[in-house]
UniProtKB/TrEMBL annotation:
Record keywords: Signal
Listed Polar residues bias regions: 101-115
Domain of life of the source: Bacteria
Protein name: Collagen triple helix repeat-containing protein
Stretches with biased composition (Low complexity): 278-290
Secretion signal span: 1-22
Gly residues: compositionally biased ranges: 117-126, 244-258
Stretches for region Disordered: 88-131, 244-290
Length: 290
């Protein structure tokens, strides 16, 4: 249900005392005391902490399988600056591959232009933050503050456009020798992926509801100044930026071959190459969810 790491060393089980499941079986009861600079990963989305003590520099997050969490803390004790990090972690978005090149245009009169290259694939959308409902019944934070980081993740880059096809070779009809056809223009690059949205959070501390704020710019966001004030519980973050660049346009296809022709036809020239395709557009950013 949870993984507890401190300075890359697994802590002994004595740091946690497990309690029986709640009567409805839906929420597991836990007790945890987290030392300085620890990392706690929760693999269960429905937990009740009878008491949770978090020391300075600690970061609590959720496993990749948890997309929405509901956590109740009967007593939360804070020391220094700690974080519940809802942002996606270890994100590696694939970039679409380059499409194949169309076949050379057929050698039929009149001369044929090469086919335009295939448009590149769009980038992958960035993951959104993990949604969280956090209920804190009692808070002891005379020397501590908590930041609930709600960042989304950036979108992926668009894929490159495909190369244009080669123009047709100059056909010869016996009386007329055609020049080679122009190469096809390269395909447009793909559009960058959408940025991920911020996590949707509902945070209740005692009788007070905490509203999420947006940090400047796009993720990753830095710790807000008000999340360093003793006694503060702050939910804040930024959506992910769109894929920072669309894919490059494909190369233009080569012009078709010329040919040596017999009298009375004059020799045919090779065709001009196609143009490089346009780059794709950056993706749109994610949405801030208050």
């Amino acid at each position: 249900m949870l993984k507890h790491i401190c300075c890359v060393v697994l802590l002994v089980a004595a740091n946690f005392a497990s309690f029986a499941q709640a009567p409805d079986g839906a929420r597991k009861k836990m007790h945890a005391s987290l030392p300085e600079n620890c990392k706690l990963e929760l693999d269960d989305g429905s937990i009740l902490f009878k008491e949770l003590e978090i020391d300075d520099g600690c970061v609590v997050n959720f496993g990749a399988s948890v997309t929405s969490a509901d956590v109740v803390v009967q007593k939360l004790i804070l020391h220094g600056n700690s974080t519940i990090d809802l942002s996606p972690r270890n994100v590696s978005l694939p970039v679409p591959g380059k499409p194949g090149t169309p076949q050379q245009a057929r050698n039929n009169p009149p001369t044929q232009r090469g086919q335009v290259g295939t448009r590149g694939g769009n980038g992958a959308n960035g993951p959104s933050g993990t949604n969280l409902k956090l209920t804190v019944e009692a808070l002891d934070a005379t020397d501590g503050a908590l930041w609930i980081r709600t960042d989304g993740s950036a979108g992926g880059a668009g894929g490159p456009g495909g190369d244009g096809a080669k123009g047709s070779a100059g056909p010869f009809t016996g009386t007329h020798c055609y020049d080679g056809g122009p190469g096809g223009d390269g395909g447009a690059g793909g559009t960058g992926g959408l940025g991920g949205n911020t996590a949707k959070v509902v945070v209740i501390v005692g009788a007070k509801s905490i509203t999420a704020n947006r940090t400047p710019g796009f993720a990753p966001s830095g710790r807000p100044a008000d999340a360093t004030i003793p006694g503060a519980v702050v939910a804040a973050g930024s959506p992910g930026a769109g894929g920072n660049s669309g894919g490059a346009g494909g190369n233009g296809g080569a012009g078709g071959e010329g040919r040596s022709c017999h009298f009375p036809a004059t020799d045919a020239r090779g065709g001009p190459g196609g143009h490089v395709g346009p780059s794709g557009s950056p993706g749109q950013p994610g949405t801030f969810i208050p």
